[in-house]
Design a protein that fits this description.
Length: about 170
């Protein structure tokens, strides 16, 4: 028969135990925060065909009174979303464009408002009429940050190039 000893625990010992657990937890989190080996970082890539498409799209939208607010060429990881956070102003008319590599078989963009509510979802497959481009208009109801999450799936290239643009109607 096993007998367990019952040792009375004082409030100071409980506090010390909680403090020790909190410190241990913070150290474990701190180690992950410092190493960040599993973080996807945005890096610039260069694809002449995507850059040509982006230039053509910018010229077309400029004729319609849009200006480029943000744009970036990014190396993505196939099958992983690349979050893009942008401040949007209530009542302004925005155009969001994502261009993926032509060899990818799926392109998808989700957009969320500040409350993490999905406000836009678009999906294209390789061979669709608009091919590797997802474009949509959006007029926010509130001035707040929004997050766009483009993703593409490419079986041959695990680090496909992508291009994101945010344009705003000015005239």
């Amino acid at each position: 028969m096993i007998t367990l000893l019952s040792i009375p625990v004082s409030p100071q010992m409980k506090t010390m135990k909680n403090f020790t657990l909190l410190l241990l937890f913070a150290l474990l989190l701190g180690k992950d925060a410092v190493s960040q080996d599993n973080v996807i970082r945005a890096t610039v890539c260069s694809s002449p065909s995507i850059l040509h498409q982006a230039d053509s799209i910018k010229q077309e939208y400029a004729k319609q009174g849009f200006i480029v607010i943000k744009e970036a060429s990014i190396t993505m990881e196939s099958e992983y979303e690349m979050p893009v956070i942008v401040p949007l102003t209530q009542g302004s008319w925005y155009q969001f464009i994502f261009i993926g590599e032509a060899t990818s078989r799926l392109y998808e963009v989700r957009m969320y408002d500040w409350n993490e509510k999905e406000v836009v979802y678009q999906r294209k497959l390789w061979g669709d009429t608009e091919g590797n481009i997802i474009s949509y208009s959006y007029i926010p109801q509130f001035s707040e940050y929004h997050m766009m999450k483009p993703v593409q799936i490419n079986k041959k290239n695990k680090k496909p190039c992508g291009y994101v643009m945010l344009l705003k109607k000015v005239k």
